[in-house]
Design a protein that fits this description.
Low-confidence stretches: none
Shape: rod-shaped
Oligomer: single chain
Number of helices: 2
Mean pLDDT: 84
C-alpha cells in the first residue's frame, strides 16, 4: 500500500510546459513578422532606420 511518497522519476515526463513555451515563442516571432509587414505596407514613407526603431520598441514592449 502506498504511503503517498513516490519516486517522480518513475512518472512519465510532462512536456506541457515546454509546449507552452514553444507556442509562445512561435507566436512572438509571428507577431514581430506581422508588425514588420504592416510597417512596410502601411508606412511606406518611413526609412529603414525608423522602421527598425519601431520594431525594437515593439520587441521590448512584447516582453
Amino acid at each position: 500500500m502506498s504511503d503517498g511518497n513516490f519516486n517522480r522519476s518513475m512518472l512519465p515526463s510532462n512536456s506541457y510546459q515546454s509546449g507552452v513555451r514553444a507556442g509562445r515563442s512561435q507566436m512572438r516571432i509571428k507577431a514581430i513578422q506581422l508588425v514588420d509587414e504592416l510597417l512596410k505596407e502601411e508606412l511606406v514613407n518611413i526609412d529603414e532606420g525608423e522602421r527598425a526603431q519601431f520594431l525594437q520598441l515593439f520587441r521590448q514592449r512584447l516582453g
